[in-house]
TrEMBL record:
Keyword Signal in annotation: no
Presence of keyword Manganese: no
Keywords: Membrane, Transmembrane, Transmembrane helix, Transport
UniProt-annotated location(s): Membrane
Membrane topology classification: Multi-pass membrane protein
Pfam families: MFS_1 (PF07690)
Species this protein is from: Gossypium australe
Protein name, entry field: Hippocampus abundant transcript-like protein 1
């Protein structure tokens, strides 16, 4: 119970830091490029892994937790968001949903490979391999990835919303009618965020859906493993098997099913189906009466 409380407190700290840093990172990536900003979280994420790759004594473990908390304020979510932004810069509007699904499927496939490695490698070797792979990803990104700067593409809808500017700055609203907006500062105030949400109903609705969905997923992620261990006495291998099931079905869904369904049923209906499946997933987990229920419930992640 104590570890659950500690993890929840750390998640609160990380969440607060992420809420402050993500708008800044996104704004800077609009001005200086996705590749330049992507290098920061990818490099910082190597530090905690390298600490445990060197040693796993108590002092190193405390250092890992400290650096993990600090780096997650910058890294958690920012790598995925910058990758999606880079993809959006280089893919046409009509193909973005399918492209996002394929990227999510590749991410899930990487998650499956990482879980398999943790399943069969020793703890020390697993951290060493993770450190090497993360370092390789940074080097590969710096060498082969081309820079993408939205400000140089001449598209009004991709201009930084937090960029300093003149009073005649405009933002494209949902009716394709330009609306004047005041100049934004580098760090957005609460008033700036409220103004943006008022002038873009679609953005406001997406933000509300994302908030409540992540609220539920965050609480479930923090407590589900402790619940499974306390209720069904899961061990390390069973947790790995459970993650593998979820990762495999998510990979199949995002790589092969989602791109096919986007065109005939539309983004909105697909999102509704996914949210409904998440609710069923959480309900079944909360009333699970046997270990097989949690295993089979993971198949809902395919949706």
């Amino acid at each position: 119970m104590l570890m659950l409380v500690i993890e929840l407190r750390l998640m609160q700290i990380i969440g607060l830091g992420t809420a402050l840093m993500m708008p800044i990172i996104g704004n800077l990536s609009d001005q200086y490029g996705r590749k330049a900003l992507l290098a920061l979280p990818m490099t910082l994420s190597i530090i905690p892994l390298a600490i445990l790759a060197c040693n796993r004594t108590t002092n190193y473990f405390y250092a890992y937790f400290a650096f993990k908390t600090l780096t997650d304020m910058v890294c958690q979510g920012s790598i995925n968001c910058l990758a999606l932004a880079y993809l959006a810069d280089n893919v046409s509007y009509r193909q973005r949903s399918s492209a996002f699904g394929i990227l999510a499927g590749i991410t899930s496939a990487a998650y499956v490979c990482g879980t398999l490695a943790a399943r069969f490698l020793s703890t020390g070797l697993a951290f060493q391999v993770a450190t090497f792979v993360s370092l390789f990803a940074v080097v590969y990104m710096r060498i082969f990835l081309e820079e993408s700067i939205p400000a140089d593409q001449g598209e009004g809808i991709t201009q930084p919303i937090l960029k300093e500017g003149e009073e005649d700055n405009i933002i494209q609203n949902d009716d394709n009618a330009p609306t004047k907006v005041p100049p934004f500062r580098k760090i957005p105030s609460l008033g700036d965020v409220i103004y943006l949400m008022k002038n873009s109903p679609s953005f406001a609705q997406a933000a509300i859906v994302a908030f409540f969905n992540n609220l539920g997923e965050g609480g479930m992620e923090s407590s589900s493993m402790y619940y499974l261990k306390a209720r069904f006495h899961f061990n390390k291998n069973q947790f790995a098997d459970l993650m593998l099931i979820g990762g495999i079905v998510a990979t199949i869904s995002q790589l092969f099913i989602m791109p096919v369904l986007v065109s005939p049923i539309g983004d909105g209906r697909l999102l509704s189906i996914g949210l409904f499946a998440s609710c069923v997933y959480a309900i079944l987990y909360s009333i699970a009466w046997s270990a097989w229920v949690s295993n089979d419930t993971d198949n809902l992640q395919m949706i």
